[in-house]
Prior knowledge:
The protein is an alpha+beta fold. It has 8 helices and 14 strands.
Amino acid sequence: MVALSTVWAIVTLIVIFTLITTLYRQASERGFDSLLSAHLFNLIGSVGVSESGALTGSPDLGDLRFSEPRSGWYWSVDPASDGVSGYLHSSSLTERIPSPGVAEVPFDSSFQRSYTTEGLDGEKLQVFESEFVLDAKNRAARFRVMGNESELEEEIARFQRRLLTYLSLFGAGMIAINAAAILLGLQPLRRVRNALAMVREGTAQRLDGRFPTEIEPLANETNALIENNRRIVERSRTQVGNLAHSLKTPLAVLLNEGRALGGEKGQLIAGQAASMQKQVEHYLQRARVAAQRDSVVYRTPVAPLTERMVRVVRKLNPGVELSLSLPPQDIVFAGEREDLEEVLGNLLENAMKWARKNVAVSAVPVLPGEDGVELFDIRIEDDGPGIPEDKAREAMKRGRRLDETKPGTGLGLAIVGDLVNEYGGSLALERSELGGLKAVVRLRSLE
């Protein structure tokens, strides 16, 4: 808006400048011609012819420039017929100035003509010339009045410079005022943007502040949307809690009955009940994440949560060397703490299960993608046997176990993959420099 208004102001001022200078030039040239024409008629009225045919008269045109030598303002009277003699001229005309022939510049029907010529000092002269009969004997003289047109051009140029200066100052002030008005007018939108950023960062729950009449409906609708999303999240959590509570007792009964029954059938019942518990927990977790994914953004600092989980895992696995690498800048996960704990917990558990001696955990920021979204990676590596590249996709399928000799349900990587997908992230299984598996989780971060 500022750029377009500036361009429009510049174009408008250029048009105004051109129009005013054109009108001023036309008016100045008309005034100049009128002045020369008046001097010409004054000169004609001041000159006569004697009985002997000599030109007589002492013209006074009322302009001191005609008396200043080589001023560019001259007049002269020459004989134009037989029987007329003499030569009259202004004191400013120290040399004769030739005039073009009649064939080159003809007289009009009033025996007048005008043309431009060069003056005594190279200046440009505008000449008004007329032939006039002086008496009844048809004795005529040629009258010429010459004005310094270079002075006129200099005067027009001075006017253009002054006009350009004034219009430039006016244009600069107009652009500045216009820009200030636009920027001040958009200030409420900046306040809305800042308030939305605070909501996104989790430091505010709604758009607070006073907004002008034009912006207030937008703020109210946004607050209503935030409140509606918050109700969706709370309702989802309530339903999740109710469902979990209603299934808790039946699953516990099945587990206890299976253990009490013993034998092959008891183990089968207990195992299936435990699998049902994990499946229910997993899908309830997915429902909760899906409900809050498009609502108000949560904030979870990555470093303290990762450090705490690494300390716990070190205590539980004293025989494995666990290293942690974190960046100097803070990384904030755009999601809930429990979900990040679920992802880290499953990956750490998987790494500890397969590692021989070493496990490495790191978190690194990633350059924003094409959509400008801030990202970060969590990388967990081990020195275990790893997963062949052609088996990586198979390992992420639900309930699939590549090695039946190790304990587990085959749900860990699948749960991580589903959780990461719910947040719009990605999970990649690669070969680690330690020799085993490297799990790379990419998630969205907050600025």
